[in-house]
From TrEMBL:
Domain PAC: 132-184, 261-313, 525-577
SMART domains: HATPase_c, HisKA, PAC, PAS, REC
EC number, as in UniProt: 2.7.13.3
Full protein name: histidine kinase
This protein's UniProt keywords: Coiled coil, Phosphoprotein
Lineage of the species this protein comes from: Bacteria, Pseudomonadati, Pseudomonadota, Gammaproteobacteria, Pseudomonadales
CDD domains per record: HATPase_CckA-like, HisKA, PAS, REC_hyHK_blue-like
Post-translational modification 4-aspartylphosphate, affected residues: D919
Length: 987
């Protein structure tokens, strides 16, 4: 506190004394007057007149800088109190000079910077170094923030006394925003480009690896082979006295929410000496805000500080002001001819920035001496300013300098002198960046066809475009990855030889033949082959594209997309192996089943007490037994129907049809139980309220278990929703209640309870579940209970304690498979003589429940609703026949297709389609889901009904389908089909 007060008192005293000496004055008209170093106490009259003329010229120049340029200039005393506020400051920030006189310079800083006393820190740095430059956010009078480049210089009189500070700000917001479009696509190299010859570093924070550019050797002597790529090497080369401070400051930015970092320290050169450096860095964060990379540049301050010290000793106060600003400044005298037309102009004075930005020193020269062919625009513009006094602001290209300039020109001094002051900046890089952006946008528009093709095909992993006349491929990163190529080569262009280099040798000849064939005829192209990726393994892909030709048939271009078919090929190969195995199995099935049945009858009691049977033996025996019974009923009923029709005895047909349909439904139910056990059934999960579902089933359960058993429900007051297939959950609850009934032959009680459960790590491990929140549905009975050895086998397929013929042994295994497929678990708690509790755990759904039970099939919908056009896609002719006849009888207009490519062509045509019904497993390169998704690219509101067996479940997934999509599992009844169709068309 005492130190700040002493600094304030010293600043006030110096400010007061300087005003008396003529160095500081009030108002915006003239904030600096230069003392004549050659003036004596009593100068002769002539010398006095010369001094006064020089003083007037200096004041005119100063006025041109302070009052006419569109940069903000602010003069403060040593304590940071504003004493002068330029017109440019009023224009940039909005406050008037009267409002800001006497205010502290921190007023124009943001609240965050004020809380960190950043203004005082910048002034202290400028006092130590003579000048400092920062870029940060500042405030306008209306509270808006703007990005500004601030150049702060400490001002001293000839005796070295500190007079105060000059702050020159330039609004860089527009330039910053204009460059972001380019920066976003070249983020890694943005700071390196701005750092010129500084030592640029790229720090990968994930693995603590640092990359340096060549300037590290040029500026500090460290050869690349001596530099370790770790962050530790960098820290070890920081002076020991600075190391902890730098480590703390840089990690404060990385570990916090900051983006930019800047600090100074001493860095050890290769020869052991230390360089004073200014290090600046910018943190790159991911979408969650975690720091991934930091890029920065290290500036050697040693020579710069020496040069600035010499400059402060040799330059006068006015020259200090001019050289503080980063913009080029010059005083120009315009020459007019006899007709008062501007024909030339001479540079009376110019600051060093002028030479830096133009690349030439024109002090005292006429511009036509350097650029005889200079555009007429410059003469007319400067001449108009000199004659009329109207300021000019513009951007224009100077051919002689081969650069773009942002120029501000104002008249100065006596109008008769025809002099103007010009302030300008080289904006060539920004204009070039804008041009690159326009070129990039044009390139993007040229790729529209490629993108549209990719979207239509579905399952796209990469795209290419082959210019056939030049044999150059341009590919995206996905294509390069699929072929194990460097993405940079794909941007530069590849030849066909380079592209096919990673194709499997066995597939290369076929690929070349297919390419030659499509080039010779033009049009569509599709081919599957294997390529080697970077990991050295081969993967199956499918290439789809087309060859475009000129009017005379000359091949011109060959764009296309890649589809990953590795999984599909694996599934097809597995299917072929399974088909061959099943064919071999069926050939001897009857004989093996008869032999196995005899063995099972003899060893039934022994097998029930043994370990789990081998899975294949269990499935084969159980399936053969049940399906032979069902097939006997179906085939026998069909034969009798044939016989009765031939005998014209039609009265008995209904009972045989009912018998066949009943057997078919039992076969479908057995299949669903098997799929549930294997967790391969097709589920239709939806958010449900389990309390509502149980309430709706209570009456059915009571009728099923009979009057000797009382059914009680205990409901959680606010149960968590669960996303589950409601019909399958109903079947599971009903099966559990039936098992409980069978365990209570003399009557008893069944309790159905719902509750919310939070499983910690230990509880979740015990239940074989992930830690989290679950809805628990428990069915408890007062029956005979189960022994531990029975509990251990309860979920085994075809295991049952009931006599032969009274149970398949699939009930509990179906419930177990359904729960696991739904992301949950089933657990048994039972004791002999005391009853059994079966608990189903389902993951909590974070949302609101939409339904409480499965909606009934809309089989009673009126046929008057049946209108519209339906596209049916299925590779099985019998299924298509069934769908066409059933829906055709309802009055729908029908279109059929046998594969995905034919179906997609119809979807991409102009034909009106109200509903798509498709199988999931289809030939033609795409499955039904991919075809539907591709169709929705051109028909966003396309309603879709998937009909599927178990094998395609991996394609559909267990999550909810998109809006307007439903799934129907094979086999299905005609009533169920028509109900689903009418339901979809009515929504």
């Amino acid at each position: 506190m005492a130190l700040n007060e002493a600094r304030a008192d010293a600043g006030h005293s110096a400010s007061h004394q300087d005003r008396r000496n003529g160095y500081l004055s009030d108002g915006n008209a003239s904030f600096l007057t230069a003392s004549d170093p050659f003036a004596a106490a009593n100068p002769p009259l002539e010398a006095l007149r010369v001094s006064q003329a020089a003083l007037a010229l200096n004041e005119a120049r100063q006025h041109a800088v302070f009052a006419s340029v569109e940069v903000a200039m602010v003069l403060t005393d040593p304590a940071g109190i504003i004493t002068n506020w330029s017109l440019g400051a009023e224009h940039v920030m909005g406050w008037t000079a009267a409002e800001m006189h006497g205010q502290h310079i921190s007023t124009i800083f943001t609240a965050v910077d004020r809380s960190h006393n950043r203004a005082d820190a910048i002034m202290q740095q400028a006092l130590l170094d003579g000048r400092t430059t920062v870029e940060c956010w500042h405030l306008r009078r209306d509270g808006q923030q703007f990005w500004a480049s601030s150049h702060l210089s400490a001002l001293h009189d000839k005796s070295g006394a500190h007079l105060g500070y000059l702050n020159v700000l330039r609004d860089q917001t527009h330039a910053d925003l204009a460059g972001r479009a380019v920066q976003e696509s070249q983020q890694r190299y943005r700071l390196a480009a701005n750092a010129t010859n500084d030592a640029v570093w790229d720090w990968d924070l994930t693995n603590n690896q640092v990359l340096w550019n060549d300037a590290l050797q040029q500026a500090y002597g460290h050869a690349p082979d001596t530099v370790e790529s770790s962050g530790s090497w960098w820290i070890d080369h920081i002076h020991p006295d600075d190391r902890a401070r730098i480590d703390t400051s840089i990690h404060a930015v990385i570990d916090g929410n900051g983006i930019t970092w800047s600090d100074e320290y001493r860095f050890r050169r290769a020869d052991g000496s230390y360089a004073d450096v200014l290090d600046r860095g910018q943190v790159i964060r991911d979408a969650e805000g975690r720091a991934e990379r930091m890029i920065g540049a290290m500036l050697d301050l040693t020579r710069m500080r020496a040069a600035e010290a010499a400059l402060r000793q040799s330059e006068e106060r006015f020259r200090t002001i001019l050289e503080t600003i980063d913009a080029a400044f010059a005083i120009v005298q315009v020459k007019f001819d006899a007709d008062d037309q501007p024909v030339d102009y001479r540079f009376l004075d110019a600051n060093p920035a002028f030479e830096r930005q133009t690349g030439v020193d024109l002090r005292g020269k006429w511009v036509t001496e350097y650029a005889p062919e200079l555009e007429r625009f410059w003469f007319d513009t400067y001449g108009h300013v000199a004659k009329t006094g109207e300021a000019a602001n513009f951007e224009n290209y100077a051919q002689a300098f081969e650069r773009w300039f942002d120029v501000r020109a104002v008249r100065v001094g006596d109008p008769a002198s025809r002099q103007i002051a010009i302030l300008f900046n080289d904006v060539t890089q920004r204009r070039e960046a804008e041009e690159r952006l326009r070129v990039s946008e044009a390139l993007a528009r040229e790729n529209v066809d490629r993108v549209q093709l990719a979207l239509a095909a579905g399952a796209i992993i990469g795209t290419w475009n082959w210019d056939l006349p030049t044999d150059r491929f341009t590919v995206d990163e996905g294509f390069a990855f699929a072929f194990g190529l460097d993405p940079a080569l794909g941007r530069d262009g590849l030849s066909l030889e380079q592209v096919v280099e990673t194709v499997h040798p066995e597939d290369r000849a076929g690929l070349m033949g297919a390419i030659a064939e499509v080039i010779s005829r033009g049009g569509a192209y599709a081919h599957q082959y294997r390529v080697r990726r970077a990991d050295g393994n081969y993967y199956w892909i499918e290439a789809n594209g087309r060859v475009d030709c000129t009017e005379d048939g000359t091949p011109l271009s060959f764009p296309g997309v890649l589809i990953d078919v590795e999984d599909r090929r694996s599934i097809e190969a597995e299917r072929d192996r399974a088909t061959a195995a099943l064919r071999a199995l069926n050939e001897t099935l009857e004989q093996r089943v008869a032999e196995r049945t005899a063995e099972l009858i003899q060893a039934e009691e022994k097998l029930r007490q043994s370990q789990k049977m081998e899975a294949v033996g269990q499935l084969t025996g159980g399936l053969a037994h049940d399906f032979n019974n069902l097939l006997a009923g179906i085939s026998g009923a069909l034969e009798l129907i044939n016989m009765r029709i031939a005998q014209h005895r039609l009265d008995d047909i209904d009972k045989y049809m009912a018998a066949a349909q009943g057997a078919a439904k039992r076969a479908a139910a057995l299949t669903h139980r098997l799929l549930a056990f294997s967790r391969r059934q097709t589920l239709d999960p939806r958010p449900i309220d389990v309390n509502m579902l149980v309430e709706g089933m209570t009456e059915l359960i009571q009728r099923t278990v009979g009057p000797s058993i009382r059914v009680q429900t205990i409901k959680e007051r606010e149960p968590w929703p669960a996303s589950v297939d409601a019909s399958q959950l109903e079947n599971a609850i009903l099966n559990l209640c039936i098992n409980s009934r069978d365990a209570m032959p003399d009557g008893g009680q069944i309790t159905i309870e719902t509750s919310n459960r939070c499983l910690d790590r230990s509880a979740a491990h015990a239940y074989d579940l992930p830690e989290g929140q679950y809805l628990c549905l428990c069915v408890t009975d007062t029956g005979t209970g189960m022994a531990p050895n029975i509990i251990a086998k309860a979920f085994d397929p075809f295991f049952t304690t009931k006599p032969i013929g009274q149970g398949t042994g699939l009930g509990l295994s179906m419930i177990y498979g359904f729960a696991k497929q739904s992301g949950g678990q089933v657990r048994i708690n039972s004791e002999v003589g005391k009853g059994t509790a079966m608990s189903i755990y389902l993951p909590r759904y974070h949302g609101s429940a939409a339904i409480g039970a499965v909606d009934p099939d809309r089989s009673t919908a009126t046929l008057a609703e049946a209108s519209g056009t339906i596209l049916i896609v299925d590779d099985e002719p019998s299924v298509r026949l069934l769908l066409m006849d059933a829906l055709g009888d309802l009055g729908f207009s029908l279109i059929e297709a046998a594969d995905s490519l034919s179906g997609l062509k119809v979807l991409q045509s102009d034909v009106n389609i109200d509903l798509l019904i498709t199988d999931v497993g289809l030939p033609g390169g795409m499955n039904g889901r991919q075809m539907a998704d591709a169709g929705r690219e051109v028909r966003p509101n396309l309603k879709t009904l998937f009909i599927t067996g178990y094998a395609e479940n991996a394609v559909l997934g267990n999550s909810s389908l998109g809006p307007g999509m439903q799934v129907l599992t094979k086999p299905f009844s005609i009533d169920t089909l028509t109900g689903r169709v009418l339901e979809l068309l009515s929504t």
